[in-house]
Amino acid sequence: MRAPVLIVKHLRIERGGTVILRDISWQVNPSEHWVILGANGSGKTSLLSALTGYFMPTAGEISVLGETYGNSDWRELRKKIGIVSSSVRQMMADEEPAVETVVSGKYAMIDFWGKLAKADLAAARRLLRQVEALHLANRPWGVLSQGERQRILIGRALMAKPRVLILDEPCAGLDPAARESFLQFVQRLSRTKNAPTLILVTHHVEEIMPAFSHVLVLREGKVLAAAPKAVIMKTGILSEAFHAKVRLKKAARRYAMDIIKNSNTYKLSSRVRSRPAGASPRKASCGRT
């Protein structure tokens, strides 16, 4: 069996006396694509900051491809994890052509100012073709649509050849048509040769494409559930995650969720937890307290 792509063990993060994440344990194996799901304030952003080396743990450890933060050069280690987020999108120079934006990903540099090597330009154009945006190569960042920018940023992240690619709420700001177009693109990306492990961070179940095999659910800085998608996508688990009674619908391998009514007392009588590879999934039942 191939080694896990990512292992998080008993991760705890405290800042200023406040516990942000507590006892987070999670494992991502080869061929798995994960969704991190949770309400606002559940700890998704803090977990991403820890995974990418910007939040140092108070306790616990994070390993990427067998190398552990603290025991390896964290600057090199975090290059194995690419991230596409709104914070990166907002820092790009309006006049920078898309192909230069992609090249800058190799050097982890914003507003690339170095001389463009022919080999880097060729690699960037190959990636633009892969993300279905080669026609945008010479177009300035300032005139690209939100959906086009997201594809360019994915190309930029792939320029460093990461083994894990995190998509941090990539559909924020997209209109419904652009969102669906982008999600279909992510589905195709997952099927490309040597595609990285994908981790989608969202609080919208509608964005969970068939490519995603597993779901990690966070609530109030703790793991509520982590298991294959079919196990996680149960009404009771999502009701607890979002502090409200919900109705989940599934059609054509996609999900939709309606809020029935708000309720802070909706709890699971049995929770789905992370489990060792090969173990049988536990069923979750729900009830009122």
Features:
Rossmann fold, 9 helices, alpha/beta, 289 residues, six-stranded mixed beta sheet, disordered C terminus
Structure description:
- This protein has a single domain (6-288), classed as Rossmann fold.
- 26% of the residues lie in helices and 29% in strands.
- The chain has helices at 44-51, 74-77, 86-89, 98-104, 118-130, 146-158, 176-190, 229-232, 235-241; strands at residues 6-15, 18-28, 34-37, 59-64, 67-68, 81-84, 164-168, 197-202, 214-219, 222-228, 244-251, 254-262, 266-268, 286-288.
- The strands form four sheets. A six-stranded mixed beta sheet has the order 6-7-8-3-9-10, sandwiched between helices.
- α4 (98-104) packs across α5 (118-130), α4 runs parallel beside α6 and α6 runs parallel beside α7.
- It is of the alpha/beta class.
- It starts with 5 loop residues before the first strand and ends with a strand.
- The chain has nine helices and 14 strands.
- It is globular, with a radius of gyration of 19 Å.
